[in-house]
GNAT family N-acetyltransferase (Neiella holothuriorum), 190 residues
Amino acid sequence: MSEPPPILSTSRLTLTPPTTADAEALFAISSDSAVTEFLAWEPHDSVAQSKAVISSMQNAQATGQGWHWLIWQSKELVGVISLIDITLKQRSWSLFRAELAYWIDTKHQAKGYATEAAKPVIQFAFEHLGLKKIVVAHAEQNPASKRVIDKLGFTHYATERYAFEKSQTWHSLLWYDLLAEEFAGELDET
């Protein structure tokens, strides 16, 4: 098993690896259907489901496929941020890339928490994991997520039309990437 994600912090936030003790707090914010409107999962319907998700996050970490953090503002859970689909090699190619994924509880949105939490996670990905590129996507109908991505300095490179269907509506995904050398200049900016 690889090491657990380190605790990361910013001026307002603390990012901690998920534990089963966090299941009730996770359930409280992941049971809101407004949070999951554009996400690949449905609202949690029980604390047991939130525990299972935490277990899945821990398993992804153990197998090197993902790193996950809970985002706390003071002692209140406000969201989750992750590096998923980590791919170091594919056959003879070296890729050293991951996808950034995040979501913030509806009552804590529009406070800059996703952007603030992403910066130390991206720094960790480039400096500790040695990744060369991070990709991120947002549903075309989700301008709030686009603002986060823009603030982080990502560059749009593709639009995936009809990428997924949820609640009987098809959504396109806009894809962005950020290279390690591009992020180095962003560390001191807010």
Remarks:
- Residues 34 and 133 are 30 Å apart (CA to CA).
- The chain has a mean pLDDT of 91.
- The longest strand covers residues 76-90.
- The longest helix spans residues 47-62.
